Structure formats: C-alpha cells, structure tokens
Amino acid sequence: MALSIRALNVWYGTAHALKDIDLDIPRNRITALIGPSGCGKSTLLRCLNRMNDLIPNARVEGQILFDGEDILGKDIDSVRLRRRIGMVFQRPNPFPKSIYENVAWGAKINGYRGDLDELVETSLRRAALWDEVKGKLRTSGLALSGGQQQRLCIARTLAVQPEVILMDEPCSALDPIATRSVEDLMDELKREYTIVIVTHNMQQARRASDLTVCMMLDDQASLAGHRTGIVAEANATDILFTNPRDPRTEAYITGRIG
After folding, report:
1. What are the angstrom distances between the C-alpha of 203 and each of 88, 111, 258?
2. pLDDT in tens, 26-75
3. Count of other CB atoms within 10 angstroms of residue 46
4. What top-level class would CATH report for the domain 3-253?
5. Of 14, 60, 197, 242, which one's alpha carbon is 20 to 30 angstroms from that of 43?
6. What are the boundaries of each domain within the chain?
C-alpha cells in the first residue's frame, strides 16, 4: 500500500470533521473519494500531505503511514512531505509567469541541480501538453485554455518528482473534452504515480478510478446537528458501483441522497 490510514480523526476547533477513518490506498492505482457535500472528502485529502497544518484550529489525531512512516509525527518535515505527495487543486492556478517558469519554479526553489530544460520538457510530455506548447514556452501560462492550464498545473506538480498526486476535483471547472483529457492523463500517470482524486462526478469516478471510497455523514452526529464525515464503504470501483454493500452507498450512487 502507498498510504495506510488508521483511526484518523480531525477537528476544526470543536467541530469533529472526520471520525475514525481506516483506509488503505494502493500504490500505482487511482483512488476516488466520493460522497455528499460536506462529508469530509477534501479534509481527508488535505490530511495526506498535511495541508491541514495551514488551517487555524485544525487538530489531527491518528496515523497515516507512508512507506511505513507516520507522516503525522512531530518530527516530519511537512515541506519535504509535500514534495513527495503533491496536490492539484480544483481550479487551474498557473502562476502569472511563462509556461516554462510555471513548470520549473517548484524544482528551482527546491534546489534542483539537473538540466531544467530537460525537466520542463519531460514534465510537459508526461502531462500530455508538450506538443501543444513546445513552440511558446516563454508565453504566459495564463493564456492557455482551462484544460491546458490544469495540465500545466499537473506538469508543475510532476516536475517536483512526487510519488503520490492528490487531486481535489481537478475537472470541476473544465468542459467535457478537457475533462476527458485529464482522465486519460491520470490513466497514463498511474503507471508511475499513486493518485487520489476527490470528485462529485459519479461517471468520472466510475470511468477513471480503480478503487472508490464512499464517504457519508455520521448519523449520530447529524442527529445532534453536527457534520462529521466517516467512510461508509471502500471497494474496487466496479464492485462498489454494481454491488454496494452499504445501503447509504447505494442511495448516494443512485441519486436518492446527496
């Protein structure tokens, strides 16, 4: 397994956001996190590279093992961790710099000593963008289309040479053609990387992922007026969508709740 999550609990102040999460994320596979809004999918994703450290009043308990090491330990360098576990956000967020500088920036600030030109080309090729931009590397990344900008952000993440890529609804701002390009890219990238994606798109989860995790709100917490996320079910994607074990999963994927 690439990541093993054990007894994970997250609070924002007094609000219990995630409760008793136990989950294994397989290496070189795409794992999709699905579930109703507010059930903690993005919170769980941010735990995987300690982005929650940046949120005031956030408190995280439990274990997240990455290559056998608990990344929640106090002696873990979170900056180094985020180089190994990169993130692509919901909306494309290229820097107001050239395409070349967008890709090279992270590597440069992390002290990369190799051939930057080669790194930029390799990263853009892996992001399936090189053929579209190779003649305009010095133009602004902001001039690209939405789908190209998202692939540029993926190339920027790849340039730091991570082992895991987290994607928080990476296609929600894209049209269907650009969405399919990103999905095809993810399928290529899983040969070298472990990918975890948050999506509200059931069709995307079914098309693109190998494992699907359905998250829900804890019933007891909801009765008390609180929103606390739990894992209702995790299984191979084809099994979860055709033969879900948990009735809440079936209700969500068939549109009866959510």
Report:
1. 20, 40, 15
2. 999 999 999 999 999 999 999 999 999 999 999 999 999 998 899 999 89
3. 22
4. alpha beta
5. 242
6. 3-253
